[in-house]
Write a structure and sequence with these properties.
Elements (H helix, E strand, L loop, with lengths): L9 H14 L5 E6 L2 E6 L2 E6 L5 E4 L2 H9 L10 E4 L5 H11 L4
Antiparallel strand pairs: 1-2, 2-3, 3-4, 4-5
């Protein structure tokens, strides 16, 4: 096995920092290095992934998933996570995240 985080590229840490900044003030958020990137958790349930290349994926289902796919989000493998551009409009991304966490 390789060293933890050895696949991680600088973009992963940059994207994770953007997401951290975006989520400031929401109680119950934590994160940790995993899968060569980062996993973000709300009340101990993972809801967002930053992969080793810095791509961000938000867990979504139902109407949120449909809205994200319609807007051009791409599914992460077979998992129920869909791409979010951390560099695009922050308010829009924060609203997507709040919908994912049922914090509307």
């Amino acid at each position: 096995m390789g060293e933890k985080g050895s696949k991680m590229q600088p973009q992963s840490e940059q994207s994770a920092k953007l997401v951290q900044d975006m989520l400031q003030g929401i109680e119950g958020i934590s994160f940790k290095k995993m899968f060569g990137g980062f996993g973000f958790f709300f009340r101990e349930k993972m809801f967002l992934i930053v992969d080793s290349k810095g791509k961000v994926f938000l867990k979504a289902s139902g109407k949120l998933k449909d809205d994200m796919v319609e807007a051009g989000s791409i599914q992460h493998s077979r998992m129920p996570y869909y791409s979010v551009d951390p560099h695009s409009e922050t308010v829009h991304n924060l609203n997507l995240i709040r919908r994912s966490l049922d914090l509307q």
